[in-house]
Amino acid sequence: MATTxxxxxxxxxSVGFDRVFNLxxxxxxxxxxxxxxxxxxxxxxxxxxxxxxxxAGFSQxxxxxxxxxxxxxxxxxxxxxxxxxxxxxxxxGRPFEHRFELADHVRVNGADLSNGLLSIDLIRExxxxxxxxxxxxxxxxxxxxxAPAQIEAQKAA
Length: 157
Fold this sequence. Notes:
Helix content is about 10%, strand content about 30%. It has about 160 residues and is mostly beta strands. It has 2 domains: about 1-30, no CATH class; about 35-80 and about 90-130, Immunoglobulin-like, CATH 2.60.40. The strands form 2 sheets. Strands 1-2-7-6 form a 4-stranded antiparallel beta sheet, with no helix packed on it. Strands 3-4-5 form a 3-stranded antiparallel beta sheet. A hairpin with a 2-residue loop joins strand 3 and strand 4 (about 70-75). It is elongated and about 110 Å long.
């Protein structure tokens, strides 16, 4: 049973949050039916994250990682092999695709495949122009009082 949320009433009382609502709608729509292979998302530091995907049986050539406009896509397609010699095949090798919507200013720092675990390191780098900065408060000394400026006008008759 799929449920969808209607964010239209929230548009009336908010300004500038339309991108957030669009992200929520896209996340609901893009949710895949299968969560295979399993994955973890962990925070490794104040501004760093790691996505770990269990890809047992996949080699480095079978995996593809792409990052474009805040969308990280991990796909896996195993090369076809002959079924010779198998009495039972329990290790799944079916193709998969996982999509992760990343926040602004998050970029992929690297990826590593070790012991059947694909680890993708992410880092958030906020530009200097967007970082919080301290604003100094300036006040004029009380001893200098300037006369208010007057606007010249003709006298009424």
